[in-house]
Amino acid sequence: MVLYTPLSETDIFPADQNAYDSTVITAYKQTTVKARKLENGNYQIVQLLSTDPFDYLHPDYQPGIQFNA
Fold first, then answer.
1. Residue 5 falls within a domain, yes or no?
2. CA–CA separation, 18 vs 27, rounded Å?
3. Order of strands, sheet of 31-37, starting from the edge strand that comes earlier in the sequence
4. Does 9 reside within a domain?
5. Count of CA atoms in the C-beta half-sphere (13 A) of 12
6. Residue 41: which of 5, 66, 4, 13 has the closest Cα?
7. Do the domain assignments include residue 11?
8. Which Pfam families match (predicted)?
9. Are 41 and 52 within 8 A, CB to CB?
10. Cβ of 44: how many Cβ atoms within 10 Å?
């Protein structure tokens, strides 16, 4: 079987399913992000979910930024 997709192999076949269990989709500074809940109670941005191209240039929405919900 051949699977043609722009996604990486790890997105289709995740090695660690528990890593995806702790992700939530939430609002952060008026923009929607996918974030991972950390052990200390904060969230870490995994992915920006926005249709505004200028949001992707904003440094506050970079993956890896931690915030309180």
1. no
2. 22
3. 23-28, 31-37, 43-49, 66-67
4. no
5. 8
6. 66
7. no
8. YlzJ (PF14035)
9. no
10. 16
| Secondary structure letter of residue 68 according to DSSP | -
Question: Total domain count for the chain?
Answer: 1
Each residue's pLDDT tens digit in the chain (69 positions)?
Answer: 777 888 888 777 777 656 556 789 999 999 999 999 998 989 999 999 999 999 999 999 999 999 987
Q: How high is the pLDDT of residue 20?
A: 55
Does 42 reside within a domain?
A: yes
pLDDT attached to residue 19: 54
Q: Return the DSSP state at 63.
A: T
**CB count, 10 Å around CB of 33?**
23
Long-range contacts of the stretch 53-59 (C-beta < 8 A, 24+)? 55/31
The two three-digit tokens of residue 14, written as one number:
């995740």
